[in-house]
Amino acid sequence: MKKILAAITEDSLDRAKRHVARELEDHGFWTDRVQQTDAYLTPLSITAYGWQYYRGSGDIAIPRVNGHRMLTKSLGFPGHTHSEMCCAMSMGMP
Fold this sequence. Notes:
- By secondary structure, this protein is α+β, with helices and mostly antiparallel strands.
- It has one domain (10-91).
- 43% of the residues lie in helices and 17% in strands.
- The chain is built from four helices and three strands; from the N terminus they run ααβββαα.
- The chain has helices at residues 10-26, 32-36, 67-74, 82-91; strands at residues 39-45, 51-52, 60-66.
- Strands 1-3-2 form a three-stranded mixed beta sheet.
- β2 and β3 form a beta hairpin.
- The protein is globular and about 40 Å long.
C-alpha cells in the first residue's frame, strides 16, 4: 500500500536544504540574502505545502504534516517535494 501520511522530519528537511543550496549555487542564484534565509518545520497545514515570510525575515515554513499533500498522494498524484518548495520560495524572494 502506498504511504500517504509521511511526516517530514528534520533530517529530510536538512537534506532538502543542502540539495537546494547546491542547485542555487550551481545556477548562480546563491546570494548572501538567500543564505540568510532559514527553512524550518511547522506542525500542520491543511492547504499549503509551505509559505514564506515576505517583507520580513524571508524564512520558509514547511509543515510536518500537510493535508494537501495527503490528498494529492491519496489521489495518485506525485505532489511536490519539500526540496522543490524550498527552491521555489527561495527564488521568489524580493
